[in-house]
Amino acid sequence: MATDALLSFPFAADLIRWRHMRCIAVFIVLAFAAGTIVAQESSPAPTPVVVPAAAQNVSDPAAATRAWLDTVPAADREKSDAYFEGGYWLILWNYLLSAAIALLLLGTRISARLRDFAERTTRFKFLQVAIYAVPYILIGSLLAFPLTVYESFYREHAYGMATQTFGAWFGEQLKGLIISLIMTPLALGGLYAVFRRAPRTWWLWGTAVVVVFMMFGMLITPVYIQPLFNTYKPLADPAISEPILELARENKIPVTQVFEVDASRQTKRISANVSGFLGTTRIALNDNLLTQCTLPEIRHVMGHEMGHYVLNHTGKLLLFFGSLFLVSFAVARATFGYAVKRWGDRWGVRGIADPAGLPLLTLIFATVLFFLTPITKSLTRLVESDADAFALQTAREPDAAAAVALKLGAYRKLDPGALEEFVFFDHPSGRARIRMAMDWKMKHGNSGSIEKP
């Protein structure tokens, strides 16, 4: 979904796990993910969904919602709650790790030594930044690797989300690292060129550079990045592709084909996306979605994804994240100089245009993003809610919407408290999604084809 792509970045985070760079070079991650609007759900088996009696002819949406939630076994609820709540701590651990790595690179003068090496190697400033960035990425990746293994491999297997062996997973991590070793030096070279040429307004121009790279990523990701990790092929079953293309035509989405992605070799989650722009737009469904969901559920998921596209959520989130980076750069403008004045001699950092100060910049960005977590989560949750409403109006499958929300509950807490949802949820909770579907059903009636007892 849109927020997974732009905030939580499930696609980019799985591809590029260079946590030491996630705050200042997060625009690369965002760039890769910005054009990918991903829907991720999870389903145990492709069995028909049975609508609870209280949700068949809805007169009380609250009771219908509770009836859907009560169909989930207590053991499954406890498992998904534990998985999702563990993610709360990972937000903290990732921030603390980013901060610790930044302070280590500054305090030991490793960053300054990397800068000195780059300056001895070449006199060209752009190349100096690029040469600095390569070992910086490698060192940070090595230091972050234990948490990366736990978070994206061990923990995913422990909760039954992943299917890859360690060797296959590690191979994809190396691919992501190679991508970052190519793209990040280029991005940082451009960013530091701005810092050198605009000593007073670098924070404004720096934001512009970030937005440009995000847009660049939106253009290249569907065509050049995603196929490095998965195989895309035309969906062969017209019984599924034609209803999807019909929805696309109704919503004026410029596609003539639906693609299938072999995601089952990596994960048990189901997903779909409508991604790209300027001629790169593509609809893709992963093979888990095709094998685990009924056609009404697939129609609802695709209605949601098309909602992101039609409502221009990528553009809106691009504007939002651009504003977020503007705030972060403004905070950096207010604090970077003070920190250099006080500790710069000890760190070997000369100023904002000195790449040796990159760890300090990452620390500032990490702190801003960490404390803005409730705001970023809430704003993107609103975007996802809009896409849910669009899907109900387009696909007209309220029972399928409820069923998909329950499948989402395999890895996202279904029934959180209000404050919990505000702080940690970048999508509406399962309870909120089902309630929206039941409200719609009471008003419009059910036009879906899910079986009833």
Describe what this molecule looks like in 3D:
This protein has helices spanning 2-8, 10-15, 26-34, 61-69, 74-107, 110-121, 125-158, 166-197, 202-225, 238-250, 287-292, 295-310, 313-347, 358-371, 373-395, 398-408, 418-424, 430-444; strands at 36-42, 232-234, 258-261, 269-275, 282-286. It is mostly helical and 453 residues long. It has one domain. The protein has a five-stranded mixed beta sheet. A hairpin with a 6-residue loop joins strand 4 and strand 5 (282-286). Helix 1 (2-8) packs antiparallel against helix 3 (26-34), helix 6 crosses helix 7 (125-158) and helix 15 packs across helix 17. It is elongated. It starts with a helix and ends in a 9-residue tail after the last helix. Mean pLDDT is 87; it is low at 1-45 and 447-453.
How confident overall, as mean pLDDT? 87
Basic shape:
elongated
Helical residue percent band: 55-70%
Structural class: mainly alpha
Order of strands across the widest beta sheet? 1-4-5-3-2
Q: What is the number of helices?
A: 18
Describe how the helices and strands are arranged.
Elements: H1 2-8, H2 10-15, H3 26-34, E1 36-42, H4 61-69, H5 74-107, H6 110-121, H7 125-158, H8 166-197, H9 202-225, E2 232-234, H10 238-250, E3 258-261, E4 269-275, E5 282-286, H11 287-292, H12 295-310, H13 313-347, H14 358-371, H15 373-395, H16 398-408, H17 418-424, H18 430-444
Parallel strand pairs: 3-5
Antiparallel strand pairs: 1-4, 2-3, 4-5
Helix pairs in contact: 1-3, 3-9, 4-18, 5-7, 5-14, 6-7, 7-8, 8-9, 9-13, 10-12, 12-15, 12-16, 13-14, 15-17, 15-18, 16-18
